[in-house]
Amino acid sequence: PLTLVINNDGTVVPPSGTDIRYWTNTTDYYTFLAYAPMDKVSVTAGTNGENPTIGYVHTNQVDVLCAEPHICRQKGNGTVDLKLEHKLARLTVKARAAYGNFDFHIKSIVITGKFNTEGKLPLAAPTAWTDLKSAEGTQYSFSTVATDALPKPATNGGSIDYKDYSGTVTNGTTTTHGNNYIMMIPVPASQHAAKLKVVYSTSYMAGDRKIESIDYEKEFSITSDFGMGKAYALALDFAQAADNAIN
Questions:
Q1: What is the per-residue pLDDT for 27?
Q2: Residue 187, CB half-sphere, CA atoms under 13 Å: how many?
Q3: Among 216, 218, 211, 238, which Cα is nearest to 153's?
Q4: Distance CA 2, CA 17 (A)
Q5: Helix, coil or strand: residue 74
Q6: Is there a smaller number of Cβ atoms within 10 Å at the N or the C end of the chain?
Q7: Distance CA 242, CA 177 (A)
Q8: Three-state SS at 60
């Protein structure tokens, strides 16, 4: 096991390497806590005997996990089963096109809203985030390649899988973190008022000539909550229609 040590002065010594501890006697009580990833969240000791909390900043873009604690266990209580559970919401965008002559090329996908930028989770009761900080205009973007056409059925009435985007995160200035799902601190729709904006173009072949359109821009309101431990996919269906409808 890895042991998180709380000193008498309240400072925290994070675990490192393999740290083996033994029961000193049958009357001592121990509390077992578990979280991950160890090196991507901060740990703060509690006061007046309270258990520690972990802190998360959304630009880290990691999947935070915690286990329900085992409090005041004694030697002989049996196995300590620490089951890690996801504590953030996961988000991606998927897109595909209907059968037809036009190809669709996504230039950018951006989600903007009032999202939580950082928060804390008490390890003794990791069921709700506390000390939340949020910011208007917090932005998440997804990596796109404009030259890639969206998948569409080969025949009318055929089916096709969505192209799954996973992306980068931006806050003020753009910071790239690689191709990952976007991880966010849970937030209800009534608070985030989020919008998804997609910029795209179309093209079609006229003989051996490729005809390309100007860039189009469409924006949608996101009405979904982003709940703890939930995974979400915003699915865009591009229609072969004169008004460039996206469902």
A1: 83
A2: 25
A3: 238
A4: 7
A5: coil
A6: C
A7: 37
A8: helix
Cβ neighbour number for residue 129 with a 10 Å cutoff: 21
Q: Hey, which residues does 151 pair with through a beta bridge?
A: none
Retrieve residue 140's tokens.
């998440």
pLDDT above 70: residue 168? no
Neighbours of 106 (CB within 10 A): 22
pLDDT tens digits, one per residue of 43-73: 887 666 677 889 999 888 889 999 988 888 8
Cα 132-176-190 angle, rounded to 5 deg: 35
DSSP structure class, residue 150: P
Q: How far apart are CA 150 and CA 154, in angstroms?
A: 12
Q: What number of other Cβ atoms are within 10 A of residue 60's Cβ?
A: 15
C-alpha 215/C-alpha 195 separation (Å) is 19
The one-letter code for the residue type at 80 is: V
